[in-house]
Amino acid sequence: MRCIYSLRMNIALATEVKYLKGVGPRRASALASRGIQTVSDLLGYLPFRYEDRIHFSTIHDVAPGGIYTIKAVVSDYGVARFARGHGAIYHLLIRDPTGTLPCKFFHGGFLEGRFREGQNIVVHGKADLDPRRPGRIEMINPQFELLSAGATDSTEAGRIVPVYEAIGGISSRMLRRIIHCALELLPLVPDSLPRPLRERYGFPSRGEALQFVHFPPPEAQLDLLNEFRSPAHRRLIFEEFFFYELSVALQRKQAERRPGIAFRVREPKIREALKRILPFKPTNAQKRVLAEIAGDLERPAPMNRLLQGDVGSGKTIVAFEAAAIVMENGYQVALMAPTEILASQHYLSARRILERAGYRVELLVSGMKPAEKRAAAERVRTGEAQLAIGTHALLEDPVAFARLGLVVVDEQHRFGVLQRKRLMEKGATPDVLVMTATPIPRTLSLTIYGDLDTSIIDEMPAGRQPIETRWSDPRHLPGIWHFVAEQVQAGRQAYVVYPVIEQTKGTGEKSVEAHHSLKAAIVEYERLSKTTFPKLHVGLLHGRMRTDERAQVMEAFRRGEIQILVSTTVIEVGVDVPNATVMVIEHAERFGLAQLHQLRGRIGRGGGKSTCILVAPKSAGGESRERLETMVATNDGFAIAETDLRLRGPGEFFGTRQHGALGLNIANPLRDTELLELARKEAFALVNEAEGELDPTKWLGTLSPEWQRRYQLASVG
Ligand code: ADP
Ligand code: MG
Questions:
Q1: Closest ligand to 602 CA?
Q2: Which of 6, 253, 541, 694 falls 20 to 30 Å from 141 in CA-CA distance?
Q3: pLDDT at 357 over 80
């Protein structure tokens, strides 16, 4: 197909797709919903697989069940008389020297007027037996392409055909045509990858690579294409990683040059302060990690460190120790948590551990009474408060710090990079410690947290017994409740977790339908407290309760006044009650793997033996089954993260938004690890060579507008 109908317009990478032939307003908005605004975006939308249509078959070869590409001529055509108009069946008969083959198009009314006898045509599709005429073979809804006489050029015929994921009403085929036109009209695609790099790795130019991935030549290797490992794919993938890593390298360089605070860490006064707050003997891993952090604090360059450690490995106390060092130096600390409940939880432990040691701790969350909150913010502003704990509120409200020295972000991988940056801007250049309970495989942590140094707590506090996890069918609930009651009578506490807060009244909507049979926390709380455990103290915790109510419930649970806590996933992160050793999760098949692991991490925190019971139908299949089996099989957060990553892919794993903001469309850090490491090495080398030329605006100027845009996005992180 040629773009003969298109205006002889000049298009550029920055041209909006709506000006392309074949893209009207409706299609433009469908494309926009996928983030495709410009020709450049469009060319970045790659086929997800390729089909071999180089080898034509003859009609004689056709057998039922096979998929064939046939070059033929139109012999006869027409609409079935009984079904004219919408829903009509369009019949097409094609012939080649070996025979004839009927094709049927359901809803084929739109095809009227398209065919002429004797036209050259290529059809591609699956052959089947005609159910009404025994022994006769036909093709239903084949893809077809009409060739002009003697034409060799085609987007489909005789080629390895790229298959795109359809976007809204835009089929793979339509996309192929639109992209074909765009590539044909585009003068020259500028190459932003530095030439020495291109030469060193023998990469094709950007233009060649795009041409190749969208319209591979017949001699291209199909398997390489399908694995995204053709030279063209590798170049495009490398390029994405390279620019991402370039921004990371620049940021690192800039961060190293920013004047930070050189805290004193070696004085006896500080050692004593640390001893005073430690309620237990730290593990070796905790000691090592604290030494790494202290080393950063001591250096004048600002710290940018990621503290990784599985749930329950004891990150909080390490953060408190770092906070104590900073406060002893006369600076303030901000501690940010992803949820109010976790902020409150941190506040409670900070008061227990730090306030008792004489530090002044302040909670700042949006659920507080305005007057209280104003007063708290004022104490932060004057410097009277030394440690401020909160959620995003610490960023969004105009909270000013007198002398902010350290920011601790308890990220649990939910905290956006943007927020981290905004908070850093609040102090001069405070040191930053990000804590995460998601053990991230190294390649991924390089991508996501490439600008951070990493410390890992890879050891659990002594005396922990592994949590025993069971998967039970809902039929066994009576036995499970019996077990819970026994444990509580023996002095333990239990969590019972539900996926929803309230039963929704059915209105026929799909999402409501899906929740219809789900037990809701409130209803179950009523039943459990009145009928199942009438003699025990049962509490309720969910996200729609006011902050102070939630804090009260949590505190009562912590003190043991509540024995069984019925809850939604609000307890997912950070809640710490060592005496709670039993967790029952109903509808466990509904939860994600990371979420289940986080939930389970709420137990097994003391010396006692802990049990987690996942209640889900034994008949659960597919990914649900794999998640549940993984949970039963292992307590190792690292193994769980890897499975989770494999099941969900990196986009979902990190939240699509954040993944997208990395500017990675084609590149997949999991699949393309080797290219990622290569790109990282090259980007860092380039930045080191360019010493003195580190003004990023200079760099930006040399990049294509597309990369400038991506660079700006990436550099946000
Ligand atoms: P997480 O890494 O999930 O944030 P926490 O810091 O909340 O873990 O610690 C989990 C529990 O283990 C808490 O009850 C904490 O007091 C306890 N803990 C932490 N470090 C030690 C240690 N070295 N020895 C004994 N208990 C510890
Ligand atoms: Mg924690």
A1: 1
A2: 6
A3: yes
Please tell me the distance from the alpha carbon of residue 598 to that of residue 411, in angstroms, as a whole number.
13
Average model confidence (pLDDT) for the chain? Answer: 82
The arithmetic mean of pLDDT across residues 547-564, rounded, is 89
- Write the burial class of residue 477 (CB in 10 Å: 0-12 exposed, 13-18 middle, 19+ buried): middle
Q: How many CB atoms lie within 10 A of CB 627?
A: 27
Query: Of the bound ligands, which one is closest to the alpha carbon of residue 410?
Result: 2
pTM, full prediction: 0.66
CB 412 within 8 A of CB 598: yes
User: How many CA atoms does the CB half-sphere of 270 hold within 13 Å?
Assistant: 19
Measured in Å, residue 278 CA sits from the centre of ligand 1 at 11
> Is-contact 178 3, C-beta < 8 A?
no
61's tokens: 């070869």
pLDDT at 218: 84
Surface-to-core class of residue 152, CB atoms within 10 Å of its CB (0-12 exposed, 13-18 middle, 19+ buried): exposed
Of 210, 207, 123, 116, give the one whose Cα is nearest residue 158: 123
What b/e string do you get for 454-470 counting C-beta neighbours within 10 Å, with b at 16 or more?
A: bbbbbbbbeebeebebe
pLDDT one-digit tens code per residue, 461-517 = 887 888 999 999 999 999 999 999 999 999 999 999 998 776 555 443 344 334 445
Q: And the tokens for 171?
A: 């089929």
CB atoms within 10 A of CB 669: 24
> Please, what is the angle between helix 231-257 and helix 673-689, to 10°?
50
Q: Are 214 and 43 in contact (CB under 8 A)?
A: yes
Write down the pLDDT at residue 389.
94
How many angstroms is it from 245 CA to the middle of ligand 2?
30
Ligand 1 neighbours by CB, cut-off 6 Å: 280-283, 286, 309, 311-317, 437, 461, 576, 578, 605
Please state whether beta strands 137-140 and 493-497 pair in parallel, antiparallel, or not at all (unpaired): unpaired
Q: Are strands 120-129 and 143-147 parallel, antiparallel or unpaired?
A: antiparallel
List, for residues 79-108, the tens digit of each pLDDT value. Answer: 775 544 446 788 999 999 999 999 998 877
* pLDDT given at position 9: 62
Q: Taking Cα atoms as reference points, which of 75, 70, 58, 59 lies closest to residue 118?
A: 75
Find, among 302, 274, 250, 351, the residue nearest to 703 by Cα. 250
Query: Which residues are bridge partners to 406 per DSSP?
Result: 333, 431
- And the tokens for 99? 């025979």
> Strands 160-163 and 49-52: what pairing?
antiparallel
Question: How far lies 50's CA from each of 124, 177, 228, 442, in Å?
Answer: 14, 15, 10, 31
Contacts 24+ apart (CB under 8 A), 108-111: 108/79, 109/79, 109/84, 109/85, 111/77
Pocket test for ligand 1, best of 317, 436, 635 (most atoms within 8 A of CB): 317
* Nearest alpha-carbon partner for 538 in 550, 524, 549: 524
Q: What pLDDT is stored for residue 515 in this prediction?
A: 44
Contacts 24+ apart (CB under 8 A), 363-370: 363/389, 363/390, 364/388, 364/389, 364/390, 364/393, 364/394, 364/397, 364/399, 365/340, 365/390, 365/391, 365/393, 365/547, 366/340, 366/391, 366/393, 366/547, 367/340, 367/546, 367/547, 367/548, 368/547, 368/548
Cα 502 to Cα 523: distance, rounded to the nearest angstrom: 7
Nearest CA to ligand 1 atom 17: 314
Q: What is the largest CA-CA distance in the chain?
A: 97
